[in-house]
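User: Predict the complex.
Assistant: Input components as received:
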Amino acid sequence: MRTAVFSTKRYDRDSLTEANNDAQHSLHFLEPRLTIDSVKLAEEFPAVCCFVNDQLSAPVLHRLVEGGTRLIALRCAGFNNVDLHAAEELGLTVLRVPAYSPYAVAEHAVGMILTLNRKFHKAYIRVREGNFSLDGLLGFDLHGKVVGIVGTGKIGTVTAKILQGFGCTVLAHDLYPNEECIAAKIQYVSLDELYSRSDIVSLHCPLTPQTYHLINEAALSKMKHGAMLINTSRGPLIDALATISALKSRRLGYLGLDVYEEEADLFFEDLSECVIQDDIFLRLSSFPNVLITGHQAFFTSNALGAIGSITIGNITAFENGEPLVNQVHRQKAKA
Ligand code: NAD
């Protein structure tokens, strides 16, 4: 099937090309992000393949359909960037990769916790410069700490179990408690209780209208003084300005972000020669107790391989009229 692959990086090209060996879809790799300005590139492609920061708003979807597109094959799990209402009205099919490697994201979240705590990023630079002083590198034992997991789906559950392995007490909050977590003696509590009891809060719920700015001034004021907050889920779960105030007052002791509300203008590009205009991002990156990675949590060879093969399988299933097990339905977005 002729497919326009937007937001292509070298690693996307490699993994999708390898996964496409048998299916032999006609993949056209395009570097630009899909936006209203670039949508023309999709003309006469019955399928488009998109990633997390491609804009699948109603106007873009209308233009896609006018150009002959019938399938949106997301090569990611989240689908918050798709106007599902418009897609349904226009008869567009939306497929995604619901699970590829929950371990990749969970392990990255735990890596962020360890780095913020034990300051590996600072120690690495110090030792390379011959500075073996330990001043400023003091951490704490994870053993015995209370961790609150918001969203105990695939990634949240793996994160919770890894942290149990460190000897943490794990609390959780989810609209639908997970049997696997209950069996692992993870205690479900209200959000307020999770905030007030947790030393570390890690977000693993999707971005929905209900979770937009879940972490705002009110939520931060309920957290323990000096708590650590980790977000590997989606940027808009957090009100960045509220975290800046909380970091300045020291209420928030550590912040680890793999995602950022305005990341679409920054992440996945080399901007090292540019003057970054986003003052909120720059303020966040200036704190000594903030660690930011550029939407990298999914980025393991295992995950890329799985994303490639599931995406190609989705396109093949659509082309052959087979059951679409990975279809995104509008009502699911409300969950
Ligand atoms: P999942 O669907 O398996 O789990 C999400 C869980 O969140 C579900 O149990 C759901 O019931 C729960 N939930 C929904 N609304 C909630 C709410 N209001 N409050 C509390 N819980 C709520 O998804 P997953 O595979 O575990 O992925 C979680 C998120 O991680 C994705 O939505 C995506 O945004 C993000 N993600 C990020 C990366 C990355 O590279 N940083 C990679 C993959 C996924």
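The chain has two domains: 2-100+301-333, 102-292.
Let me know if you want any component modeled separately.
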